[in-house]
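tool_call predict_complex ligand=adenosine-5'-diphosphate
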Amino acid sequence: MSSNSRDEVLDRGGWRLLARWMRPEAAVLAVALILGLVTAAVELISPLVTREVLQRMNSHTPVTGVALLLVGVLVISTAIGYVQMVMLGSLAERIVRSVRRSMLASLLRARIGATRTAGEMASRVTSDTTLIREAATGSVVQFVNGIIALVGSLALMAYLDVILLAFTAAVIIAGMSLALLLMPRLSRLQQQVQEQLGQLGERLDGTVRAMRTVKASQAEDRELAVLYDRVDDAQTLGVRAVRVEAAAAMLTGLAVNVVLIVVLVVGAWRVSTGALDVPSLVAFLLYVFALTSPAGMIMMSVTTMQSGLAAARRIDEVTGLDRESDPDDSRDDHLTDQADVRAVLELEDVTVRYLPDQPPALKSVSMAVPQRGHIALVGPSGAGKTTVLSTLLRFTNPDSGRILLDGIPYERWTIPAVRSQIGYVEQDAPLVPGTVRDNITHAAPSTSDDEVWRSLEAVALDRRVRSLASGLDHTITASTLSGGERQRIAVARALVTRPRVLLLDEATAQLDALTESAIIGAVRELATDGVVVTVAHRLSTIIDADHIFIFEDGSIRATGTHQELLSTDSLYRELIEALQISSATAP
Ligand code: ADP
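tool_result ok
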C-alpha cells in the first residue's frame, strides 16, 4: 500500500472531524459499546450451551434446564440489542442535527463570495450529513462489537481445539486482507459519487431558477440531457463502487466458506484420531458460522466509515467557510458628533480587487456621501458601481485605501454597526421566504403593522397587498408578484428602518410608470433627512439626483450635477442620449 492510499484508509483528517463531532456524545457511545459487549458475550455462550446439550444427550442426562438457559440468553440478547440500536440511532440523529446546525450557521455567517452555489450547499447540508450519521455511530460500534465477537469466538475456538483454529485463522486472515486492500478504491469512488450528486444539485438549482427561460427557449430536452448526464455518471460511479463492495463482501464470505470446508475436513480427521469429540466439533462449527456475522460487521463498518469520512471532509469545507469577522479593535459605540462631519460615508483612495490576478474593479476611488440628498452613480456596465455598494456594505474589503463612517475608519467599527446605518435594495430585489410582513420587517422585526402599512403606501403597494387573501400575512413568492412589485417591496423593506444611508441598485429593466414614480417619491422623501445612493439606469432617476458620479473602468471619470455634466462630459452626454432614445421608444 502506498503511503497515500494508507492515509486514505486511515484518513486522519476525516477521523479528526468525526471524533470532534462525536466527543460530546462519548458517554452515550461508551454505554452503547458496553451493551454491545454484553450481547456479543451472550451470543458467544450459545455454541457452548449447544455442546452441553449434545454431551448430555450422549450421556442421557435431562436437557430442559440447559434449553431454558438458551431461551433466556436469547431473550436477554434481543432486549439489549433493541436498547442499543435505539440509543445509537438517537445519538446519530443528535450528531447529524448539530453538524447541520453548524453548517447552516457557517453558511449564513460566511463572507459573500466564499460559498459555492445554493444547490451544491443544499446537497451538502441534506445528503452528506446522512452519510456521517452511520459512520459516526453505528459503524464505530459495529466495528468494535465485530472485533470483540471475532476475538471472543477465536478464543473459545482455541479452547475447543487449537490445531483446528490455526487452520481457520490462516484462511480468515488471507480473505480479510484481500478485502481490506480494496478499501482505498471504494473510498475514492464513494467520494466521487457524492461530488457528482453535489454537481447535480448545483445544475438543477440553476435550471429551476431559469425555468421560464428554459421553457421559452424550448431547451427542456437539452437541459434534461445535461441533468441526465450527471445522474448517469452518479450511477456509473455507484455501480463501480458496488462492484468493489461486492467483491469485498464475497471475499469475506468465501473465506468463511473455505473455513467451513477446512474445519469439516480437519475436524473429521481430529475426531477420527480421538483428539476431539463430536459435540465439540459441532460447537466449533457453530463458532465458524457465528464468525460470518462479525466478519461481515467489520467489513460493513469499514465501508460505511469510508463514505462517512469522505462526507466529513465535504462538510468540513462548509463549516470551515471563510467567515465575516470584525477587526480586533472594532467597536459599535463610537461617539461622533454627526454635525461635525461633512460626510456620513467617505471613500479615500479605495482599490478593490475580486481576484488577485484580475485588474481591480475599483482603482483609487475617492468620494464623499453627504448626510442628506440623492446621489446617482452612472456609467457603463462593469464600471464598478455595484462594487462601490458592496464595499460600503463590507461585503468586499478594499485592497488599499480606507472607508470612513462619520469620520471614523471602518476597521474601528463592527460590521453590524456599519450595516445598521445602511439600507440596501439589491438589483434583482429578491423576496425573502415568508409573508408580506416578513419581507417588510426583515431588517426590523419589531416594526408595528401601522409602520408596515405606511411604508407600503410610500411605494404605492398598499392597495395591492390589501387585495391579497390574507393581507400582510399572505405568503409571497417570486411568481406571486411582478418584477416592479418585488422592487417596491424591496424599497419598502429598506424604508421601514429609516436608514441614514439607502443604497439602491436600480433594476436595469424598464419598470412600469407607477413603480418608477413610487420609487422616486419614496427616495425623495428619504433624501430629505438621509442620503440615497442609487446605481442609476433610468433617465428619471439620474435627472432627479442632486449629484452625479460617472464611473468608467473602475475610476470616477467626472462628477457634478446633471446640467454641469451635460456641458462638460462627452460620455455623460452619450449615456443620456441613449437613455432618451430608449425611454422614447419604451412602451
Ligand atoms: P457595474 O455595477 O458598474 O456594472 P461591477 O461593480 O458589478 O460593475 O463590476 C466591476 C468589475 O468587477 C467588472 O469587471 C466585473 O466583471 C467584476 N466583478 C464584479 N463582481 C465580481 C465577482 N464577484 N468576482 C469577480 N469579478 C467581479
